[in-house]
Amino acid sequence: MKYYPRPKAVPGVAESLAMWEEQKARLDRMNSVCDRLNRTRNFDRENGFFRRFLVDDTNGVLFSYIPKVGCTTWKGVFNRISSKHKENRIPGHLSRLSRYDDTGRAKRLREYKKVLFVRDPIVRFLSAYLSKFTNLRGLQKTWERMFGIHIVNKYRPGSDGIRQEFVGKQTNERPFLNITLTEFIQFIVDKTDAYPLTEITDHWLPQNIVSHVCEIRYDFIGKYENLAVEAPFVLNWLGLSSVVGFPKVHPSSAAKALADKYASVSLTYINAIRKYYEEDFEIFGYDSRDTPLKIAHALFDIDL
């Protein structure tokens, strides 16, 4: 993958051609892997799936967001777009595909430009863990209430005392369980039945499942790692660069913490989480070997 040296809202001809060549390679890879996996393009499109498509009717755009892939920033962008276009929407709410009837949904999925951004699966997983299990605020207690007791029960020997402190208390009185990254990995990869796709599980489920990338014919697949370049590029392509700009991109805390956090995880579980996201690696063109190499590089100053 070629990374461009600096962001340009309106790239020059050569850079634009290079970007579209990269897009063709990404889309060709996606179609080839999906065909090999024998994924049908017909599927049960539940309402939760339609909620993940943000709509701009003025410019004919559908943006499919994935949690932990800059989705909060993209929601802010589309909120500003809707406000400036003064489209028919509920004030303070994003325009989503779920608000339309079956005919309206089918028409937009067929005719609008469809955009998706993805992220290195291992870094995205770490980002979900850091934001939900290590922030030492109410959100952490909420996730510990939903998943933490089960994780502690199954993966933390001698945890009876912790469970007794936790059960029966109000949320604000409960101690933090401080789920470890290894425990969260075990919880994810040990599940015998597939987790249903919900607005909670979509924070860690594989991106190809969250986005239905094999079932929806996307027109543009961007990479989070090159967001500073590709976000302005796609806004320009969509005809939106005169309406809204993309905010400054800051370095990812998860990417910076990659070596530090995964250093405490055994190779067995690193390989297990790599296998869990195997289809994401293939479909979106990430190299699953990068994770142990990046960890080794950071810990031992090894040249990659």
Put simply, the count of helices is 14
Strand fraction: 5-15%
Q: What structural class do you assign from the helix and strand content?
A: mainly alpha
> Assembly type of the shown chains?
single chain
What would you call the shape?
Answer: globular
C-alpha termini separation: 16 Å
What is the residue-mean pLDDT, rounded to a whole number?
Answer: 83
The total beta strand count reads 4
Radius of gyration: 21 Å
| Poorly predicted segments | 1-10
| Biggest sheet strand line-up | 1-2-3-4
Describe the fold and architecture.
This protein has helices at residues 13-36, 47-51, 71-85, 102-111, 121-133, 138-155, 160-166, 181-189, 207-211, 227-237, 253-262, 267-276, 278-284, 290-300, and strands at 53-56, 61-64, 113-118, 220-223. The protein is mainly alpha-helical. The radius of gyration is 21 Å and the shape is globular. The longest helix is centred in the N-terminal third of the chain and has 24 residues, at 13-36. The model is unreliable at 1-10 (pLDDT under 50). Strand 1 (53-56) and strand 2 (61-64) form a beta hairpin. Strands 1-2-3-4 form a four-stranded mixed β-sheet. The chain contains 14 helices and four strands.
